[in-house]
Design brief:
Layout: E1 29-34, E2 40-44, E3 48-49, H1 59-70, E4 73-75, H2 93-98, E5 103-113, E6 116-125, E7 130-140, H3 144-160, E8 169-176, E9 183-190, E10 197-202, E11 206-211, E12 217-222, E13 229-234, E14 240-244, E15 251-256, E16 262-267, E17 274-279, E18 285-287, E19 295-300, E20 306-311, E21 318-323, E22 326-331, E23 338-344, E24 350-357, E25 360-367, E26 374-376, E27 383-388, E28 394-401, E29 404-411, E30 417-421, E31 426-432
Parallel strand pairs: 2-4, 2-5, 3-5
Antiparallel strand pairs: 1-30, 5-6, 6-7, 8-9, 8-31, 9-10, 11-12, 12-13, 13-14, 15-16, 16-17, 17-18, 19-20, 20-21, 21-22, 23-24, 24-25, 25-26, 27-28, 28-29, 29-30
Helix pairs in contact: 1-3
C-alpha cells in the first residue's frame, strides 16, 4: 500500500532545491460521485444583481454546491427553480411548498464602490413562512467565492446547530510528470478545491502536510536533502524552519498539538521509529515511546494530553494511545487485521483510520462511545490518509483511480462523496485545515 505503510519507505534520493514560488497550480476538477435523496431539501435562488458588469462568481452556485457535498442538504437543481425572488416580500411560499422545499435562500448583490460589492441574503423556513437569517457582506469582487462559503456556513449552522466548515482550506500534494521528471508540489486551496496556491515545490517527494491550529503554518516532510526532514512553512510569508533532520534514519509524520506549541513526530535515529514530541520554539525533543516495534503516525487528542499512533507491536499495524508523558500504550483497535493513519474529530469522539482486510484498504470511522465498532465511508480498494473537517461533518481521503491518485471529500455518514482530481498528474496526502477567524 502507498504511504500508509508507515510513511517511511524512503530510499536515499538525489539532492534537489525546494522552490516556493508564485507558479500557478492546477485546479482540482470537482465531481459529485454519490448523493443522498433523504437530505433536507433547500432551494438557493440565483442572487439578483443590481446593474454593473457580470460577476466572476455565481454566489448561489457556490452555496448550492456546498450544501450538496455536505450530506445534510439537497439543493434544488438550478433548472427546477421557477421563480427568482430576491427579497422576502417577493416570496410565493405556495410555489416552494409544491416543490417540496423546506428552506429557501434568496439574495441580491449591489455595487459598493472601489471594486467592492455588497451581498445580502435571507434564509426562510418555507413551511412556517418565517425568516431565519438576514445578513450582508461587503467584500472585493474577487472574494465572492469566500463570501458564498461564509453564507453557506451561516445557513448550515442556523439549521443544524453545528458550525459550518465550507469557508476553510485544504492542503494536498500533487505529483506531475514521470520518473526523474516528476515535480511534487504542496498546494493550499479552498475546501472545494478552488483557488489553489503553491506553498512548496520539489523534485523529491513531499509528504504528510499538517496544519497548525491557527491555520498560519503547515508542517510537512521533504526529501530535498537526500533524507527525510520535517519543516514548518509559514503560508503567508513563505518563510520556513527546519524542525527535525537527523541524518541517521527517518524524520516523519508531523502532527501539531492543539495549542500549536509542539509537534509529535516519528524519528528512528534511536534505532527504530519511535514517537517524539518536539517543542517548536526550542526544538527540544521528548521521547514518548520505547519499543522494538515501529511506532509512527502520531496525532494528539483534542485535550492535548494523549497521543494516538500506529504501531505493529502486536504483529500488524494497529492504533494505540499513550499519554504525552509516555508510559504504557493501550491498544484501541481490534477489528480488522490492519488499522493505521488515525485522524481524530474535533471533539475526540470519532477516529477515522485506514482499515485493511486482505488487499482492500478502506476508510473507517470508529465512534469511541461504541467501543471499537467501525463504519466504512469509502469503497476501497486502496484508500488512504483520512482527514476530518474541523466540525467533523466531512473528511478528505486519498484514493487510487486506475494508475492515478485522486482525492475524495465524503460526509461523515458516507452517504455523499465528491471526487477531486487533477487534469494531469496525481493528487495525494490531503489535510483539512482549521476554521478561519470570523
Amino acid at each position: 500500500m502507498r504511504k500508509t505503510i508507515f510513511r517511511f519507505a524512503a530510499a536515499l534520493v538525489a539532492l534537489a532545491a525546494l522552490v516556493a514560488g508564485p507558479a500557478v497550480a492546477q485546479s482540482l476538477n470537482v465531481e459529485i460521485a454519490k448523493g443522498v435523496a433523504t437530505a433536507t431539501p433547500i432551494a438557493v435562488v440565483p442572487f439578483a444583481q443590481a446593474g454593473g458588469a457580470p460577476l466572476p462568481t455565481d454566489v448561489a452556485d457556490v452555496i448550492r454546491a456546498d450544501f450538496n457535498r455536505s450530506g445534510k442538504f439537497r439543493s434544488l437543481d438550478k433548472n427546477d427553480i421557477v421563480e427568482t425572488p430576491s427579497k422576502g416580500a417577493d416570496i410565493k411560499f405556495a410555489t416552494w411548498r409544491l416543490l417540496k422545499q423546506d428552506y429557501l435562500t434568496i439574495g441580491r448583490i449591489s455595487d459598493a464602490g472601489g471594486g467592492m460589492v455588497k451581498v445580502e441574503y435571507e434564509l426562510w423556513d418555507v413551511n412556517r413562512q418565517q425568516s431565519l437569517l438576514a445578513q450582508s457582506f461587503t467584500a472585493p469582487v474577487g472574494d465572492l467565492r469566500g463570501v458564498a462559503h461564509q453564507i453557506a456556513d451561516q445557513i448550515y449552522e442556523k439549521i443544524t446547530g453545528v458550525r459550518g466548515a465550507f469557508w476553510t482550506r485544504i492542503a494536498y500534494v500533487t505529483a506531475v510528470g514521470t520518473g526523474n521528471n516528476t515535480t511534487y508540489s504542496l498546494i493550499v486551496a479552498d475546501s472545494d478545491g478552488y483557488n489553489p496556491q503553491v506553498v512548496a515545490r520539489s523534485r523529491e517527494s513531499l509528504l504528510s502536510p499538517a496544519w497548525s491550529p491557527d491555520g498560519s503554518k503547515i508542517a510537512y516532510v521533504s526529501f530535498e536533502s537526500g533524507n527525510s526532514a520535517v519543516y514548518i512553512q509559514n503560508i503567508s510569508t513563505g518563510s520556513r524552519s527546519l524542525i527535525a533532520s537527523h541524518p541517521k534514519g527517518i524524520n516523519s509524520a508531523p502532527a501539531w498539538s492543539p495549542d500549536g506549541s509542539k509537534l509529535a513526530v516519528s524519528l528512528s535515529y534511536v534505532g527504530n521509529p519511535e514517537i517524539f514530541v518536539i517543542d517548536v520554539a526550542s526544538k527540544k525533543e521528548s521521547r514518548i515511546t520505547n519499543n522494538f516495534a515501529i511506532d509512527t503516525e502520531p496525532v494528539f487528542t483534542p485535550d492535548g494530553q494523549n497521543i494516538i499512533f500506529t504501531s505493529d507491536r502486536s504483529g500488524k499495524p494497529q492504533l494505540y494511545q499513550t499519554s504525552i508523558s509516555g508510559g504504557n500504550a493501550q491498544r484501541i483497535t481490534f477489528q480488522g487485521g490492519f488499522n493505521a493513519s488515525a485522524a481524530v474529530s474535533f471533539d475526540g469522539k470519532q477516529i477515522a483510520m485506514v482499515q485493511g482486510n486482505g488487499n482492500v484498504y478502506r476508510i473507517a470511522i470508529m465512534d469511541r462511545s461504541l467501543g471499537d465498532q467501525v463504519r466504512f465511508v469509502s469503497p476501497g480498494n486502496v484508500d488512504d490518509s483520512p482527514s476530518f473537517a474541523p466540525n467533523g461533518s466531512m473528511l478528505l481521503y486519498a484514493a487510487s483511480q486506475g494508475t492515478r491518485g485522486v482525492l475524495y471529500a465524503v460526509s461523515a455518514d458516507g452517504l455523499v462523496r465528491q471526487r477531486l482530481v487533477l487534469s494531469d498528474g496525481d493528487v495525494r496526502e490531503p489535510a483539512w485545515g482549521p476554521y478561519r477567524q470570523r
